[in-house]
Design goal:
Oligomer: single chain
Radius of gyration: 20 Å
Largest sheet: 11 strands, mixed
Number of helices: 6
Length: about 300
């Protein structure tokens, strides 16, 4: 029986994306690389735990959950989250940023200064610019200021991001236009927190990093992993947690957050004519189904 590996998700670094596995092993992902994995018959998805600690009861979690945590571990994980505003005394400096995912989709967010652009890569931001830097609560007030004064959201659904990746403006200047316009309006707001230092608009473009140039439209996405199922194909792009995998039936999106909590085994891939025996949600209102013959 093939050795099974527990996936800890997709991580981004200056060298690009890589899958991280329990035990510290990492698998670098490059365009054209064959992606091939499956779930053994009888396999179950178990909770990944919280804050680096294993779930004490190894609870079974739903296949469609992107968090892969049971209710108690999810509560513990969020209790120590910046996003939940539970660590207001965090002494670290924070960046406020504007992130663009496609036409009409720009959001405001914050990330610890020490993390650099990692958070933007993890979210799949096609273009971004820093807006300011300062203490956590000043960064939070700036977020709220932009939401109230300029109606800038702090979240963009992943479904919306995926829908436009293959139809983005061709040039970096076009992709940066909305960020530049919003940046100018944001720094001109009169209620800007005094402890937050404004930063110049210097758009950073990730279209090349993600492999989005000439990306074919995706025909669907894996809805969940199931025991006995498999995925294989050629990697053509990756953005945020998503892998865009080319198969004989077109490009399928694999959200790597769905891979966590499973014990995965290698499968024999055969290039573009790969295999897909996982449930798929077809795009363009096509019904989701198990596509035994798609690849």
């Amino acid at each position: 029986m093939a050795q099974a590996w527990r996936c800890k998700g997709l991580r981004w670094s200056a060298d690009g994306p890589e899958l991280v596995w329990d035990g510290g092993r990492r698998s670098a992902l490059t365009w054209g690389k064959q992606v091939a994995f499956g779930v053994a018959e009888g396999g179950v998805r178990t909770c990944v735990g919280a804050r680096g600690h294993a779930c004490p009861v190894r609870a079974v979690v739903p296949g469609r959950s992107t968090g892969a945590r049971c209710e108690e571990c999810a509560r513990l994980d969020r209790a120590h989250s910046v996003a939940a505003d539970t660590i207001a005394d965090d002494p670290r400096p924070y960046h406020v940023y504007l992130a663009w995912f496609g036409p009409g989709m720009t959001k405001v967010g914050i990330t610890a200064l020490e993390r650099g652009p990692a958070r933007l890569l993890e979210q799949g931001a096609v273009c971004f610019s820093w807006l300011g830097a300062g203490p956590l609560m000043a960064a939070r007030r700036t977020e709220e200021l932009l939401r109230a004064a300029l109606r800038v959201p702090d979240r963009i659904p992943y479904a919306d991001k995926r829908a436009v990746r293959s139809a983005l403006p061709a040039s970096a200047a076009e992709r940066a236009a909305e960020v530049a316009d919003l940046h100018a309006r944001a720094v001109a707001l009169p209620a800007w927190p005094e402890s937050l230092t404004r930063e110049p608009c210097q758009p950073v473009d990730h279209a090349g990093v993600f492999g989005l140039t000439d990306l074919p439209p995706a025909v669907g996405q894996v809805a969940e992993l199931v025991a006995g199922g498999a995925v294989s194909g050629r990697l053509v792009a990756a953005a945020g947690p998503d892998l865009h995998v080319e198969t004989g039936g077109g490009v399928i999106v694999v959200d790597t957050r769905l891979m966590t909590g499973w014990e995965l085994v290698p499968t024999a891939g055969d290039g573009v004519g790969g295999e897909l025996t996982m449930p798929v949600r077809q795009f363009r209102d096509r019904e989701a189904s198990v596509q035994d013959g798609l690849f």
